[in-house]
Specification:
With 245 residues, the protein is an alpha/beta fold. It contains 7 helices and 7 strands; from the N terminus they run αααβαβαββαβαββ.
Length: 245
Amino acid sequence: MDADLAHRRGKYGIDAPYVPLVFAASGAALVAFAGWRAGAGPWSIAALIGGLWCLFNAASFLYTTRAGKFAVWAGILRELGLRGDERVLDMGCGRGAVLLLVARLLPRGRAVGVDLWSAVDQSGNRPDTTLRNAGLEGVAERVELHTGDMRELPFPDGSFDLVVSSLAIHNIADAAGRSRAVEQAARVLKPGARLLIADFRATREYAARLRELGMQGVSERRLGWRFWYGNPWAATRLVTATRPA
């Protein structure tokens, strides 16, 4: 069933599109140099190894952004056992990769997305693109979009049964801003509701702040090779927590 949920009709772009381009161009250049200087001893061998490593990073990054993250999030969301009538917030929803997966599990609920719509963080990131994807996925009537900063969410306290965020909070440059975003996520949760943050940076920060806020069951785990943004050192981790009832 996870594979069915991960199947998609929309167009979700490339995360940080300049990164795999740099990896691929660097890898191709190094491999070409190694071929040109074949027989030059350690230099050509080092260039070949470096080039193959860069190309591996590019392939891993593209796999994650085009397929891997969908499969992983499908499994995570299935494990939640949603009733189908929840109100769910996706912080930094982008073109709807996670938002619309959630919406497919909410036949009687509402999937709400908030974003600043930066095309640097994701190619073609615009609200009209997300709404178009919602229509292609057959969930347009369940989806609601807002333009807003996750450090100042435009929602009352206790508005949501679930809050999710995928590869978004790290885009806030300063630790104080990231802490504020985590505080806002906790604020808009209903008592007993859950928070899930997937990111490849600053996850220990998020977990520590959630504990300071008195959130329960705070945990952190790796999400595996399907969610690597190039290599194991850019592996995505999932932070989970529950607001006290």
